[in-house]
């Protein structure tokens, strides 16, 4: 049998750290451009939280208060959580399911792309769109809802909600690995909408039926929204560390599930 | 056994290069489906090798194995002497695969820019666009391209990193005749620059036009392998059609007959040369009528090679 001749191989190609960083950046840039131009994504991810906020926070209940906090302020925290969830789930799951199911991910995998760059780009995209939604909610609230928050609180709120994109990005990756290219958006909505309601993102927690309130305690969006509400002084005064721990544990579970899907693809017919 | 044909007339490219990619005793099953059964296949530097076969024969599976996208159930896959999934090897490999959906909102030049960035020493964008004939479409979004233009963009992504080894899975599907010939020209130019190409196709004409070696694959097995001339000589010949009282089994006994089957009222016979067979037929059946002799076309020859029913016996190799 013939041997592989060494002369054929070029000098070992090691990719420099700066080259790798450049790839990650470019991957994220094009992931952002791709979705920015995708009206299905931008409309559903940005318009829905804003529309709900305008309707329920600015038009209908602007003068009301919930436990000493004005409704427009309270709803920035909850619709902010709702928006972050949407941006993250749609930013990861639908793209991944379609790339996987329809062969594009194989083209990427066959290329020398660092595999993690693909996932990182989706997470970065989710965080950017999360930030956009939260910032727009703040602008609306300040301009039309009389929301007055110190700058530090606004920065903290933004930072917390954008960090809260991570658990839902992880969840999106898990869904993306187990949903088909056509069923993914439906699967996301089936999870996203009931989860939002039961976590008190539409109807404030204290107005939820008792049973739903008990369920809420087990749901990640509840914990993120409580962190956000805590910053604007409307939380239920549970320790913040508990909320973070729940979100961290949830993230790890979702990443574990996504990893199973990632490895399963190796031996699959259409990966 | 590594199936490499090293015929004298083909020495120049067929055997001079180093081994670039190989499947050794590879078996791949998808659940119950046996996609590849003990396939041995080797490609040398600077060659164009065509995997020729009908849909579902296992061509794409072979390509995916060599790209490290799937793992074999048993056997070895090697690229540049190592594991196909090795990132170093991937930097020297380009692939054009069959894709259901490509991100549609990115422009042609953006897709190329991103894929170029993965490689250590990519070709300049202008050169990639020119090679794939995409200069005028550079700012077009992928979703606005025609089928042929999409194929050319995928080709551009495969070559933009200036890879040593290029995989082309059904590269000309959906292209019109002109675009197909243009792509062939580009593939030939790549080979002139010392690139190695593995392509799959179900067009014998395409394999014939491009390949130094053809491996005919059917139902997960390589059933014939050789230079295009050898494959054609194995498969070409005459087709004789006649209405005869003789049955298929006895026709098959005649010397020179490679295949025979009943086709409605007539018998269709394949033979290397027609004269001796016709003489024998006439001697045995004075009532024979409707005699027609035609040269078997390439596609028919290919069908004869891959056909797998009891009446057709045509197993070379």
Sum up the structure in keywords.
heterodimer; A: 271 residues; mainly alpha; two-stranded antiparallel sheet; 72% helix; globular; disordered N terminus; B: 317 residues; alpha/beta; six-stranded mixed beta sheet; four-stranded antiparallel beta sheet; 12 helices; 13 strands; disordered C terminus
Characterization of this structure:
- With 271 residues, chain A is mostly helical.
- Chain A is 72% helix and 1% strand.
- Chain A contains eleven helices and two strands; from the N terminus they run ααββααααααααα.
- In chain A, a hairpin with a 2-residue loop joins β1 (65-66) and β2.
- In chain A, 44% of the residues are buried.
- Mean pLDDT of chain A is 89; it is low at 1-11.
- Chain B has 317 residues and is an alpha/beta fold.
- Chain B is built from twelve helices and 13 strands.
- Chain B has helices spanning 11-14, 59-66, 87-90, 108-117, 125-131, 147-159, 177-192, 204-210, 228-235, 248-253, 274-284, 298-306, and strands spanning 19-30, 33-44, 48-52, 74-79, 93-96, 165-169, 196-201, 213-218, 221-226, 238-243, 257-263, 266-271, 289-295.
- Chain B has a six-stranded mixed β-sheet, with helices on both faces.
- Mean pLDDT of chain B is 85; it is low at 1-14 and 308-317.
- At the A-B interface, α1 and α4 of A face β1, α3, β5 and α4 of B.
């Amino acid at each position: 049998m013939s041997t592989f001749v060494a002369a054929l191989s070029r000098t070992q190609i090691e990719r420099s750290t700066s080259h790798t960083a450049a790839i990650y950046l470019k991957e994220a840039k094009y992931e952002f451009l791709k979705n920015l131009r995708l009206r299905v994504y931008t409309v559903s991810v940005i318009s829905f939280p804003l529309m709900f906020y305008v309707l329920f926070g600015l038009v209908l209940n602007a003068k009301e208060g919930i436990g000493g906090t004005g409704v427009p302020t309270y709803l920035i925290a909850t619709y902010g959580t709702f928006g972050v969830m949407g941006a993250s789930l749609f930013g990861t799951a639908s793209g991944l399911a379609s790339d996987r199911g329809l062969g594009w991910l194989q083209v990427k995998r066959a290329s020398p792309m660092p595999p993690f760059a693909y996932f990182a780009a989706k997470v970065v995209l989710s965080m950017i769109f999360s930030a956009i939604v939260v910032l727009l909610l703040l602008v609306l609230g300040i301009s039309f809802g009389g929301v007055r928050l110190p700058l530090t609180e606004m920065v903290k709120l933004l930072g917390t909600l954008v960090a809260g994109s991570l658990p839902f990005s992880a969840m999106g990756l898990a869904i993306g690995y187990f949903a088909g290219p056509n069923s993914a958006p439906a699967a996301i909505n089936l999870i996203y909408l009931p989860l939002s309601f039961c976590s008190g993102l539409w109807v404030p927690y204290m107005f939820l039926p008792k049973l739903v309130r008990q369920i809420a305690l087990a749901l990640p969006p509840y914990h993120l929204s409580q962190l956000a509400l805590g910053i604007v002084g409307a939380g239920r005064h549970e320790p913040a560390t508990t909320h973070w721990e729940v979100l961290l544990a949830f993230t790890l579970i979702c990443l574990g599930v996504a990893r199973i899907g990632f490895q399963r693809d190796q031996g699959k017919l259409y990966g | 056994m590594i199936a490499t044909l090293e015929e004298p007339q083909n020495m120049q490219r067929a055997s001079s290069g180093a081994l670039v990619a190989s499947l050794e005793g590879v078996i791949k099953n998808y659940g119950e489906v046996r996609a590849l059964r003990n396939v041995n296949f080797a490609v040398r530097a600077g060659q164009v090798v065509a995997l020729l076969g009908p849909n579902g024969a296992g061509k794409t599976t072979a390509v995916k194995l060599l790209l490290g996208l799937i793992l074999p159930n048993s056997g070895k896959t090697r690229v540049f002497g190592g594991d196909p999934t090795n990132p170093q090897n991937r930097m020297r490999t380009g692939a054009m695969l069959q894709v259901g959906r490509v991100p549609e909102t990115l422009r042609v030049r953006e897709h190329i820019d991103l894929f170029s960035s993965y490689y250590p020493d990519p070709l300049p964008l202008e050169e990639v666009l020119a090679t794939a004939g995409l200069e005028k479409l550079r700012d077009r979004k992928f979703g606005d391209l025609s089928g042929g233009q999409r194929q050319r963009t995928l080709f551009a992504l495969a070559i933009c990193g200036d890879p040593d080894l290029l995989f082309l899975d059904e590269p000309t599907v959906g292209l019109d005749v002109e675009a197909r010939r243009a792509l062939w020209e580009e593939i030939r130019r790549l080979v002139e620059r010392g690139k190695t190409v593995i392509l799959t196709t179900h067009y014998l004409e395409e394999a014939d036009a491009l390949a130094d070696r053809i491996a005919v694959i059917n139902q997960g097995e390589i059933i014939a392998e050789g230079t295009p001339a050898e494959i054609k000589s194995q498969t070409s010949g005459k087709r004789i059609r006649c209405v005869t009282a003789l049955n298929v089994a006895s026709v098959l006994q005649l010397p020179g007959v490679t295949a025979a089957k009943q086709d409605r009222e007539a018998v269709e016979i394949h033979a290397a040369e027609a004269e001796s067979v016709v003489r024998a037929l006439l001697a045995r059946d004075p009532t024979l009528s409707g005699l027609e002799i035609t040269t078997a076309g390439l596609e028919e020859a290919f069908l004869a090679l891959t056909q797998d029913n009891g009446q057709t016996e045509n197993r070379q190799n």
